[in-house]
Amino acid sequence: MPKIYSNPRDLLGQEGTILGPTDWLAIEQDRVDGFAEVTGDHQWIHVDAERAKDGPFGGTIAHGYLTMSLVNFFLPDLIEVRGFTHAVNVGADRLRFLAPVKVGSRIRGAGEIVSVEEVKGAIQSVVRVTVEIEGGEKPACVVDTISRYFPEN
């Protein structure tokens, strides 16, 4: 269940709030292959299961940027902000890939509201999302996502 805020201004003062975790998501080869098609990144460690068996990870792994892009999949399950006319994704800071996501493993998102401020008629929040690997010692990815919400009134 996401943490729900009825208005972007309700985010003010919420720094330190823990969000999630989400449900687990299985990372299968077809998702990795689809990402390779979209991005043109067909490196064998991602798409050649036979060759990857003898590679550094013992099998194929998800692209780092696939893992990062799944943060957008997890965010709606972590936080829901209502009462805005529109919102924009401002970007990301502090992106780190800490462990590979092996095909066949499961990942999930966990979050923390890092900062909230008023910016140019909007409320801007930074949510640090950690992509965890089931049974893993290190997370796959940690990134600070920046969102800007323009309140209705």
Structure at a glance:
This protein is an alpha+beta fold. It contains five helices and eight strands, in the order βββαααααβββββ.
CATH topology term: Thiol Ester Dehydrase, Chain A
Question: Could you say which overall geometry the principal axes of the C-alpha atoms support?
Answer: elongated
Gap from first CA to last CA: 27 Å
In helices, the fraction of residues equals: 10-25%
Number of helices: 5
Q: Strand-residue fraction?
A: 35-45%
Question: Could you please describe the fold and organization of this structure?
Answer:
This protein has 153 residues and is of the alpha+beta class. The protein has a single domain, classed as Thiol Ester Dehydrase, Chain A. It contains five helices and eight strands. The protein has helices spanning 29-39, 44-47, 49-52, 64-69, 71-78; strands spanning 3-5, 18-19, 25-26, 79-81, 84-97, 106-119, 122-133, 141-151. Strands 2, 3, 5, 6, 7 and 8 form a six-stranded antiparallel β-sheet that branches. Strands 1-4 form a two-stranded parallel ribbon. It is elongated and about 55 Å long.
What characteristics describe this protein?
153 residues; alpha+beta; Thiol Ester Dehydrase, Chain A; two-stranded parallel ribbon; 5 helices; 8 strands; 40% strand
